[in-house]
Structure formats: C-alpha cells, structure tokens
Amino acid sequence: MIYQIYPRSFLDSNGDGVGDLPGIASKLDYLRWLGVDAIWLSPIYPSPMADFGYDITNYTDVHPLFGTLQDLDTLLHKVHQRDLKLILDFVPNHTSDEHPWFQQARSSRMNEQRDWYIWHDPAPDGGPPNNWTSRFGGSAWQFDEQTEQYYLHVYDVKQPDLNWRNPQVRQTMFDVMRFWLDRGVDGFRVDALEVLLKDEQFRDNPVNPLWKPGDPFYTRLLEDYVVDQPGMHAIMQEMRTLTESYSQRVLIGELYLPLERLMPYYGEQLDEIHLPFNFQFVTMPTWEASTIRQVVDAYEAALPEGAWPNWVLGNHDRSRIATRVGHEQARLTQMLLLTLRGTPTCYYGEELGMQDIALPREVMQDPLAREHPEYSRDPVRSPMQWDRSPNAGFCPPGTEPWLPLPADYQQINVAVEREDPHSLLTLTRRLIELRRSTLALTTGSYCPIEGVPDGCFVYLRQASSQRYLVALNFSGQEQTLKLSEMGHGRIVLSTYLDREEPIDLALLRLRSDEGNVIELANL
Ligand code: GLC
Question: Is 353 helix (H, G, I), strand (E, B) or coil?
C-alpha cells in the first residue's frame, strides 16, 4: 500500500505551524504499524508556495520549511531501515515563475533559455494567442510587458509551463530524476502528466457542447489540444528507460484521462508508466454498488495484458472519501480499496475517516480558491489528527497550524482509534494485514458475482485453490444474499469488526453498510 503524505500537514516538529521532514521521520513507526509499504511525499522542494510546492524554484534541494537535504537523506535512511520505500513528487510540466530558468527566459527574447518555456505573440487584437484556459481559472496566457509576448500557464500564473519540445529541457529534467534516484529515492509520482506536451499549432480548444451554467468552469472547453498530445509516449518510454537503469524503482503517473486514453500509458510493451493512477473512484459522480461494479469491471477489462492495476479513493486535490460517502460507508470503501486487485493508495488521514474541513473564504490559501472558492482544496489538506491534545498533536501547543483542525478531532485521531477495537483505523490495519498475508487478496484474480441484491457488490478473489469472497452492502439497509453455489466459508473480517464465524453462503445477511471478507471452504 502506498501512503500519500502532504508534508505541510503531517507533523510539525519545529513549531512553525507547517509540517516537515523530521516530523515525518518521527512517525515512520506509525506507518509501519499500519502496514504501509511505500510513502509518497507531495513536493518538498524550494518554492514560493504559490501552489504549495507544486511551483518549484529548485528541483534538487529541500525547502527550509520542510528541512534540509540532510533531513531528506536521514528520512530516506530511516525509511529504508524499516523496509519501507520513499517516492517523491516530480513536477515536470511547470516551474515557479521565480525559478532562475524562467527569470532568464523572461529577461529577453534573445535569451538562451527563452525557448525553455512556451511563448507566443499576441493575437492580432493584442489579446491572448488562443482560447486556452488555466485550470485555476481565466486565460492560460499571461502577457509579459517587457518582452511583449505571452507565456503559457496551464495552472497558476506563477506556474509557467516548460517547453518539453526543447531537448535541453528534457535532458535537464531527466538529470533531476537521476539526482534523486542516485540518492536512493525509490521512484516518483509524476505530476500533471497529461498536459506535458501541447499542440504545436496552438489551435483553439473546442467548446464543450454539453457544458451548462453551474457545471465546473474547467469543463467549459474540451482540452483537446492541451491533453494527451502526440509525442507523449516517446517521452514516457525515455523516462521509463532512465528509471529502469536503476533497480527496483517505480513511476506513478498523475493522468486524469478516460480509460481508453489512460491505458496506453502502461506502454505497448509495458515500457512506460508502471502505475498510471486510476482515478475512477475519485471522479465517480455517484457512489452506488452498481456504479462501483461497472467502474471496476470496465477498468479490469481495459487493462492491457500483464499490466498491474491500482486504486485510489482520494488525494490532496479532491474531496475526502469520508466526506463524499459519510462515516458509515467510509468503512466499506476501505474494504473495497484493500480487497480489489491492484496497488491501493491511501491519502493521509483516510485511515481515520478524516473529512473535509469547513473553511471561511478569508482563510483559504489555495490559488484555485482565489477565483473559485467552491473548488478550494484547502478543506482536504488539514493537519493530520494524531491525538486529543491541542492542535491534535500536529504542532506544539501554542503554535497556530497553517490550516485549522475540525472539532471532531477529539474522536477522530490516531491515539483514540488505535485503542478502539472497532475504529476505522483498526479496520484499515486489519484489512492491510489480511491482504498482505493472503495470496488470493494480493495477486489473486477478480471475478464479480451475479445475482446479488441491488445495493450490493460481491466479488471473488482467487489464487489457485484459495478463494475469498468480498461482499459489500452499500444500500444502507439489511440485505440477504443467497449464494448456495459458494458452499460454506468463514467470515474473517466484517466492517463492523464484531464477527468472525463460519457461514453457510446459502444465507448471508449483511447489515446496513456492512462488508464481509469470507474465506471459502474448498469445494
Ligand atoms: C497536480 C497536483 C495539484 C497541482 C497541479 C499543478 O494536479 O496534484 O495539486 O496544483 O498538479 O502542479
């Protein structure tokens, strides 16, 4: 299991209200105890923090807020000592506008590094060169007074896009990867991959014919000429070849794409991204058994032969799963995540049932909130809830955390849930333990079971003669399943954490929002 840490929010060891690397290092035993295999850190590099670290001014150093390069080495050492892996966030699409490369590029049209970014003359009326919009709102083009051209920023105005058609840019960014791989980092989660190349002719994006007022602003145009452009796969292969020249490293790609465009990122010869993130559960509009099953089946069917699946419920950009489905069903979603075929990724706090926090507009800090507070990502980035003490143990008492804590942290925190045999944390840990020790649940096949009541999703995981049935009731009321052809078995884990018992599958009662993992007897 991969565990995503948003470093600002995990643990503040020095009392500045912001989490840091020594803070993370001090919690590795918790992650070990939970059963995590690998940790992915959102960016820790020097940055003016316009987009909280996704705007980088130096790719090969650590922001003083988070610590030093030495702290990173220490963390890496401690991670490896515990047989864990460390994955860094790699942000190849854009830098900060304060990066020395951009400072050079914007200094003159003649500058050697001008072409490292994407510049364009104004349209004949002086306006932006085309209709492309920023994912954070407004035009994707910013006029530069001094050199009288526009530069492209798919995200914030302070995040100019690098020009990946320039060979020097590619080489420099590949050197960045080498820098970290040489240090012993176990791989990268690669940011915003789907927009890495842009249309060479800068054609206007078509208007989305289905868009209506009230729909998200960023879906008004179809991003046909910005997303998944020809040429991407050659770059992915190069990244993979570089990664493979080290042993045992991984590439995980952030790619918000429909399945038919996502799967090719595994590579025709499985020679591109090891794990193109599967955001099906993150983007799914309704959370119902039938839709979940459809999504799982479609994903399984679309996977290229030999490709390894992965599943994600949330991340630092999207509403937390416990907010989307509620506390009761949050337990079911953990069972789902941890019993499906493929590598699960857990966003910090998900194991506790942390929810989005309520925030007034004035305290929002996300650049996305500037124009569109309704899309602010601050609510999903609140401090990790460690215990009942002031500031939930995230930062020393008397320190103000960079984002507030919710009132419910008194109940929803590591210390309380660790002691509670029925907590979500206990359930998550037991699920991870069961998964790790059960071949059928790790590498076994996946087969959905037909003929179950509406509101239920049931599937079989099997590795040779070992068979496990996962029965999930999303309906909010009791359901009776009649699966006599499955014979007998034993409930090894219920989301209620109150029953482990033999069961005749001819009559399986699932309470409201209950899920069971059942070890089936040999036929
Ligand atoms: C990715 C990150 C997001 C960031 C954006 C720009 O989508 O997950 O947090 O704002 O890229 O780097």
Answer: coil
